[in-house]
Amino acid sequence: MNKGNRTSTRVIACMSLLLAGTAFAAEPILIGHIGGYSGACGPFSKGNLNASQLAVDEINAGGGVLGRKIELRPRDSQSKPDEAAKQARESIVSDKVDIITGPCTSSELLSVSAVAKENKTLLWTSQSNTHRANINFGHPYIFQSRANTLMESRAVADFIASQKDWKRIVIIGSDFEWPHVVAEQIEQRLKSSRSDVKIARSLWPKLGETNFGSYISGGLDENPDLVVLPMFGGSVVNFIKQAKTYGLFQRTKLITMLTTDVLQTLGNELPEGIFGFSPAPFYALSSPKTDAFVKKYTATYKQVPDDWAVLGYDSMLQMTEAIRRAGSLDSGAIIDALAATEYVGLRGKIRVRKLDGNSNAPTFIGVTKKIPGFDFPILTNVTRIDGDSVMPSAAEVMSLRQPVASSVK
After folding, report:
1. CA pair distance 268, 259, nearest whole angstrom
2. How far apart, in whole angstroms, are the C-alpha atoms of residue 198 and residue 200?
3. What is the model's pTM?
4. How many other C-beta atoms can be found within 10 angstroms of the C-beta atom of residue 340?
5. What is the full DSSP assignment across 310-370?
6. Among residues 156, 159, 368, 372, which one has the fewest Cβ atoms lying within 10 Å of its Cβ?
7. At the top level of CATH, which class does the domain 20-147+300-361 belong to?
8. Domain boundaries, the chain
9. CA of residue 260 relative to chain centroid, distance
10. Alpha carbon distances (Å) from 50 to 233, 296, 315, 407
11. Which residues, other chains included, contact 393 with Cβ-Cβ below 8 Å and sequence gap of 6+?
12. How confident is the model at residue 24 (pLDDT cuts 50, 70, 90)?
């Protein structure tokens, strides 16, 4: 390299450093991540936070947003709704965050949402997906970046309807809101699409139950073609292990939520042929963006990303893209930007509906199988069910909101 080229290179490098310093001269954009890092949500929230931080690092390396650096301010909700509300309030009042995210459970999201509404602070959720937060108790400061509970349940129902041999169904679900929503939506959806399908029995072990023997045997007494298992995380792991000893997988089919963390936990103990639904399985998202993310996440955290990590990363980029388009941190302007254009991310094209802040996000359904290159079974023959086909109509949204509005009068 000659002297002139060396001088030119030094000048360019100095200019780049100067510009970078100028870009971050303003106060940073603060995002409060209210996650259940301890308690029941620990395994999910930590991956979501890690991936969100990975996205923030990439954004800042590229010059930030609106000439400002982004900073995450994590606070532990302990997976408790009261603590989540407390931490959200302190995040807004004490940390002076501009936006909040992170709730894991339905109860946490509802409590944090109330705080966001009170303080007129934008909240987005990439983990909890209760439709009650956006629809029943919706307000202008909230949006969901994954399919809500109604959409996810309807996607499962449509998949069941496509399997012509499944006519007699047993539902075994944990006794709390989400499993009951799944059961109700499946039954309602199948009434119009498959009148020959019968829900033979519904069984409801209490939340946190670890011994499923009586429920498994009770369900098998009905000779079902399919068992629907609306459970998640450790409950799914325990159920599947116990179901093997009862010969369930030799007698019928099973469909349940099988996120990457559950697949990894079960490993070789997971039978092939189980049907699973999932919000964001990295191995079913084939694109250069996804490949780059998986490679970087795996190198950084020494493990592959679970669904919650994929959602955290994708949602952070979606949010920052909306801030760029809005040209400000005004909540209304950001929601308008989210609704006006499609975001193309790890899960493909995603649009947010202004009516209720819901995304037309997909649900993925496949069947477990051991595949070379993975040290745990994954979902194969994956069907992508786009959100538009299962999203509640505007009339449904308003009918669900009406009782809430009436009760306030």
Report:
1. 15
2. 6
3. 0.91
4. 13
5. HHHHHHHHHHHHHHHHHTS--HHHHHHHHHHS-EEETTEEE-EETTTTEE---EEEEEEE-
6. 372
7. alpha beta
8. 20-147+300-361, 150-278+364-389
9. 12
10. 19, 12, 13, 41
11. none
12. low
